[in-house]
Amino acid sequence: MRPRVAPSPDLSSSLSACIARRGLKSTRQRQAILGAFLASSGHVTVVDLLARARAADPGVSPATVYRTLRLLAECGLAKPQRFHGSPTMYEIVAGREHHDHLVCTRCGRVVEFEDARIERLQTAVARARGFTVTSHRMELYGLCRLCRPARPGRKAGSAGRRSRAKRR
Amino acid sequence: MRPRVAPSPDLSSSLSACIARRGLKSTRQRQAILGAFLASSGHVTVVDLLARARAADPGVSPATVYRTLRLLAECGLAKPQRFHGSPTMYEIVAGREHHDHLVCTRCGRVVEFEDARIERLQTAVARARGFTVTSHRMELYGLCRLCRPARPGRKAGSAGRRSRAKRR
DNA sequence: CCGGATTTTGAGACGCACTCTCAACTACGC
DNA sequence: GCGTAGTTGAGAGTGCGTCTCAAAATCCGG
Ligand SMILES: [Zn+2]
Ligand SMILES: [Zn+2]
Ligand SMILES: [Zn+2]
Ligand SMILES: [Zn+2]
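ok -> structure tokens follow
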């Protein structure tokens, strides 16, 4: 029922809408951050986003990135995801359907999935315990194809190395 | 279906074992903390645990609770659970089987459950995406039986209820 | 039971990821 | 342009947890 909207100008207008509706103002910084966010694919950290936004407009401070991200979340454009062991990541939410995550504990790659059977079972289980579920979180941690140890003949390093250096 | 071992001396000996094995020492504080932890049921925060441990022995500092909890985790006796919106909670792990959690967003109650069908589907989904799962986290958030609004014909609780009632 | 090596402890400094405060600075309608 | 309300950056503050370090406790061999 949701029209699928390719990540495009549309979304930024939807921010303007939300901004207008609340009597807020459109600023250089917000544009830069929104631009960087929409241009990103997948899941971004505040640090990532700050860097990208600064590429477009050096005058962007971390505080503003935090604030704008919160605004985007309130407008239903972004959604924070807190994966184990890394700072909060944000993903584009507009027009996408619910999904859960597979997270590679080695390279940090995040893969999304959705499984209606699991979702149904979750609801059923909850109901059986007297709960009315309003949201859930499900993350599967493990090794992705490329990080899986010692498969002969496989080269894991070439294309796949997503940045994601995590300290701990 | 599991032989229910009442939280008993067994576990504390298993700590001594782990302590001995690593050349560590048994101290008053560790006893107090372990005692408080084992006597607790369900999921405890550091603050909770500190209070309980101090009841038994006033000379226990927060730092030591953190340290001991980490030790317990390394010994496989405790497991940290980070639920959305509350500080890390620890639960007794020894001899129990894996489970996931239902969390009431209003009163904070935590209910455990385990569903083999879901677990199987998780593994299957992961494999289909090329992942080897080593662990997962699944939490269902919502309202428990007692917190569910007694619907006088009108649907009261939308998604947003944020109130944080600490359970005691 | 003692002495000394070694571990542990408490207090407070520190770190990280955020949020808040506030004075200076826009954006924007008139 | 003006005025005003919203916005920004810098830095202080907060929550939660870890680290540092000197003093204290544990343990072990004698
Ligand atoms: Zn990987
Ligand atoms: Zn996602
Ligand atoms: Zn409840
Ligand atoms: Zn549990």
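Residues 100-167 of chain A form a domain with the Dna Ligase; domain 1 fold (CATH 3.30.1490.190).
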